[in-house]
Amino acid sequence: MSGLNATHDPALLSWVGSADAPGTDFPLQNLPFAVFRRADSTESFRGGVAIGDQVLDLGALHELGVLAGAAAEALALCAQPTLNELMGAGPEANGALRAALSGLLRRGAPLAARLQGLLVPQASAAYRTAARIGDFTDFYASIHHATAVGRLFRPDNPLLPNYQWVPIAYHGRTSSVDVSDQPIRRPHGQVMAPGAQRPELIATRRLDYELEVGVFVGRGNAPGEQVPLAEAERHVFGLCLLNDWSARDVQAFEYQPLGPFLGKNFATTISPWVVTLEALAPFRAPWVRPAAEPAPLAYLDHPDTRAAGAFDIRLEAWLQSARMRAAGLPPQRLSHATFRDAWWTVAHMLTHHTVNGCNLRPGDLFGSGTQSGPQADEAGSLLELSSGGRQPVALAGGEARTFLEDGDRVILRGWCERAGFARIGFGEAAGTVLPALVS
């Protein structure tokens, strides 16, 4: 597991002034990666690192030739239009690059004047997904979400017995995974109305968001090779925010016996910035289970995971309706949760994914599943907040929601903070709902 080093020093300041502003998501201690170019340009996409409200152009930095050794080799991988090769280079290469970037961006760095011209305002940048995503697996790692949703669909048996033992997941679709601020078109699907004998094809009336954490795979594994739990994090590059949009009425009709399909695969939104596991080292937490719960099988249990396998990431979901925007009202927070409450850790997800010999590749994406907490305001979806549509959620300006309406903009945010360390954030994963196309 990645530990603390000089790049986490809370006393470090940057010559980029906005990186030192209180509450910024992107201080010098963070340095998350993205793929970007200047908006409205025909430039090639390339890697960038967030520092304050700027992007450091890693393609241009590579051309300067100011780094050497492992850091220079890793930097060269950032000049490409995706970060798959950087992700696959492993934690040593990525750590060398992080250390070098931290040095270049510190206040008083000798090259600061030369690097000033390599900054691009984030507000002037366009982004794409940080990697070419070969495969997408969405897990179900929040026991509070699983229990709440199970209670809506199976009141007498809300939590199926395999949940205690297996990191449940389904295989999603990569073609509809896109970066923040892409529009979300209301999807169609078959829906069976209560008491009906025949389904109908309609635009979903129960469009929902899901507050999730995304996990980008780093180093892959060969077909047939299992990744032990103690080694799992060496195969993870970093984390992002993820919204797996859901059509709940379509999902309810189709999900048995084989699980999600059209109710899920029409859109998944991720934040442009990927925060590395090394940056998250100060915010590790013990992974714990209630004493009454059985211990997991041996391949999903390790002392290091129990001691520090969880990440204390604060998560929030916000909504701004079209009417709120027109009235000048800001987005309203619907719910909050913490990734620390997840039933399974990032390492558990990766190890279980490979226990049957499944080969993962750099840039593959996991979703954590909706993250919900034990309290009512810690629900990570409208399905839970509205009790399946029975209890509308009040919005500013007199509106209410059971599920999303056209024009609604959903914004996911996440950050970490702990006494004695610099606060770091994930930026935003946002999307606005557009009306369905005429079927």
| Helical run tally | 11
Helix fraction by DSSP (H/I, runs of at least 4): 10-25%
Low confidence ranges: none
CATH architecture of the largest domain: Alpha-Beta Complex
Shape summary:
globular
- How can the largest sheet be summarized? 8 strands, mixed
- Assign the CATH class of the largest domain: Alpha Beta
The average pLDDT value, as a whole number, equals 96
Structural class by sheet pairing and helices: alpha+beta
Question: Proportion of β residues?
Answer: 25-35%
- Distance from N terminus to C terminus (CA atoms, Å) equals 50 Å
CATH superfamily of the largest domain: Fumarylacetoacetase-like, C-terminal domain
Radius of gyration: 22 Å
Number of domains: 2
Record field, number of beta strands: 26
CATH fold-level topology of the largest domain: Fumarylacetoacetate hydrolase, domain 2
Oligomer: single chain
Essential attributes:
439 residues; alpha+beta; Fumarylacetoacetate hydrolase, domain 2; eight-stranded mixed beta sheet; five-stranded antiparallel beta sheet; 11 helices; 26 strands
